[in-house]
Amino acid sequence: MRIAVDVMGGDHGCGVVIEGVKRALEADDKITALYLSGKQEEIQDALQKAQLSDSRVQIVHASEVMTMEDKPTVALRKKKDSSIARAIDLVEQGKADAVISLGNTGGILTFATFKLRTLPGVDRAGIATVIPAPDNEFVLLDSGANIECKPLHLLQYAVMGSVYSREILGYKKPRVGLLSVGTEDGKGNELTLEAFKLCKQIDINFVGNVEGHDLFANHVDVVICDGFVGNIVLKTCESLAMGMFEMLKRELIRNPKRQLGAYLAQNAFRAIKRRMDPEIYGGAPLLGLNGIVMKSHGSAKERSIMNAIRITTESVHNQINQTICTEIQRANERLAATKSDVISSAQA
Amino acid sequence: MRIAVDVMGGDHGCGVVIEGVKRALEADDKITALYLSGKQEEIQDALQKAQLSDSRVQIVHASEVMTMEDKPTVALRKKKDSSIARAIDLVEQGKADAVISLGNTGGILTFATFKLRTLPGVDRAGIATVIPAPDNEFVLLDSGANIECKPLHLLQYAVMGSVYSREILGYKKPRVGLLSVGTEDGKGNELTLEAFKLCKQIDINFVGNVEGHDLFANHVDVVICDGFVGNIVLKTCESLAMGMFEMLKRELIRNPKRQLGAYLAQNAFRAIKRRMDPEIYGGAPLLGLNGIVMKSHGSAKERSIMNAIRITTESVHNQINQTICTEIQRANERLAATKSDVISSAQA
User: Which of B181, B225, B240 minimises the CB distance to A216?
Assistant: First the structure.
């Protein structure tokens, strides 16, 4: 298995990325080649510092870096020798099976869509973020790639999310829900009402509409929404979780009795922080592209990078994209059959 | 001040509502009349049980109740003698200054919009929910009334939310933000991009786009969005908060050491629960209607009802609706002036 890592786009420089790569290489001998895309000198320095000398590592020099400020469509034209471009090139050329980047999400999406194209039958890529809840983990798709969605995009997310939950998270028959303002069939906006009808027709475990209250109540394993709503939901959850930890901290240090209590119970707090840690998955895949593309948090550190590489190799190993293609094709056939049923019954 | 309370729509029957009313009457002598709308017999029983005999209380009999299952538009035609209809009638007829109900949100909205109409210059009512964050409280508007919004509706929410935050929550110059997928000016969907341009033109403290991360980070006091997004955000926050308390509880009882710690620190947990308790405000106003309308949680109990009445009387006392009218008019004048500026400069 051959993985390309864009080492340049993170907040902490390429050093931590290479530390993460080192740990991933140590843990996984199925990786046969690991390409590091970025500025050659910086990478060489970081390799030396990390004492990483592994014959599987190859540097792919790129003279430019896409920054968080770069407008994706402009970068696509102007930063052709950027580390993300070079890393994706390797997948396009068949030299790598997957690519990981910590950079600008919009940029990765733009470069990857342009160079790799979407899978047959898929119109738009979507970001699938795994979110921990008390009794399960759910996939939120799309969490920010596709701001203006069409109903058919949501249907495709339903199929892709279902495959991802099953193949990577191990849910045998993932419950797929459409995020809306109520659980009744008729609740929703124009987009979700139309998507609802489509999702009912295909062969997934579609549980219908779900609302915000269902998300952390073990009612759903795959939450489908447009990228505008998904991005807001994801970031709101991150913000509220941090807010609650902050409130808890302030209350716990308010007097010595509480401080002692907090000290005795500290492992409970640690367990929750660990459980809610976005570093567990290290990143979120951009599903629906003709190649495995993983976006890591800009602030990702070693463990996060290592985990992102692990999830990526699992995606390659479990042939996520082949399964998506098969199931998307089946869904499209179902939709076409229903449509022709409707037409023929109208003609009858 | 005269308040109408629809006592029928709650989950716990009319008894708890009347207990709440009793406490509110004891606490507030500015209330001169309190109408209880609902089934006369049930109300009389509950009054007796609560030992409430106050000359300000008047029963307004209504033979029907709108349930959570009732379709609002159908109820509007079929349940003309429902407790919510009768309560709103009192406001329409000028006998009450405000109305409070625990019932079906869509139903309250439909009846209130039909009977009271919106304020001059306001196209759609919106639900303003107050959400506690570590360092402030923000108003989320619209949190579920108006599923398909137009840009001008969001502008009107910006004005109304700003008034509410200032007059009821006491923020002198509330920071109003438009909920989007990034803080940069160009981020958003068709609706928010257009609303952004409008909000820039009027005289509020508009801080531009905010994203999910800003919500609990004291960056914004009034969060503007359409009712689809707002309802999902509100319910997701409630679900995540409950999920985190659940995870915490499970971790804290895992062994005796943690249990002791939890026991010593219990007041810290209580303080947070209190801080995040939706009962503090007891309800959310439907802003933009020609009358003060407060929606309480279906599960509201005494304290919550008492608080809802308190907020309602404050809204009446602070002349929220008069202020909204003035500021909406000023905003419309600004928009009209900008438009004519654009036209005259185009003609120049």
Answer: B240
